[in-house]
Write a structure and sequence with these properties.
With 201 residues, the protein is α+β, with helices and mostly antiparallel strands. 26% of the residues lie in helices and 30% in strands.
């Protein structure tokens, strides 16, 4: 209704004159809701634009053209070890329900099983899920990707790191070095040679 009224207001001179003479009556006759009428009274273009976007998004024909792009801003935790199964939280904007997520590099792609999405289609969104890291998964940095229900995606480059499992990292036992033995202070004197006197004849 709001979209149609604004379209008519910009193209219909008769409606323009009526609105200029009595805006309140014109808004009521157009069948606008009290909320939309209040927006016109405030004369706030930003709020009016947002109301237009919201109404267009509700339309089954044009909504997907005006839906804000999905955006991924963070993942927690940002690292894990081989063989672990983690509960992860994704944060961002305009997530969709349902949506997909994974971590990936040049050769590997590991899915994140999304269990819950909060704040779908809102400026502050959050999704929780599980991430199973195989015991032989290559270590190193991975890109995190989220994909909306319209196949739009957003990535967080090197947002997650796979570390080696504790079993793969063998701790070398520390060898205690025995303290140096103190040299005896008293040095042994070399044995004196005893001369045997030959008796005079």
């Amino acid at each position: 209704m709001l979209v149609k009224f604004i379209h008519d207001l910009t193209t219909n001179e008769k409606l323009q004159r009526a609105f200029a003479e009595n805006p309140k009556k014109t808004l009521q006759q157009a069948g606008l809701s009290a909320k939309h009428q209040a927006l016109f009274k405030k004369r706030d273009p930003q709020q009016l634009s947002q109301a237009l976007i919201d109404e267009l998004r509700m339309s089954p024909f044009t909504g997907f053209w005006f839906a804000p792009a999905i955006s991924l801003t963070g993942i927690s935790p940002a690292s894990g070890r081989q063989g672990q199964t983690l509960e992860v939280t994704l944060t961002g904007q305009y997530f969709t329900d349902p949506m997909k997520a994974d971590i990936e590099n040049n050769t590997q792609r590991v899915p994140i099983t999304i269990q819950k999405v909060s704040g779908a289609a809102e400026p502050k969104s959050q999704a929780t899920g599980t991430l199973a890291l195989a015991a032989n998964l290559p270590t190193g940095p991975y890109t995190v990707r989220v994909t909306s229900n319209t196949q739009a995606s957003s990535t967080l480059s090197m947002g997650f790191t796979v570390n080696a499992s504790s079993g793969n990292t063998r701790a070398t036992p520390s060898t205690k070095t025995s303290p140096a033995r103190k040299a005896s202070a008293a040095k042994k004197a070399p044995a004196r040679k005893t001369r045997t006197k030959t008796p005079k004849k």
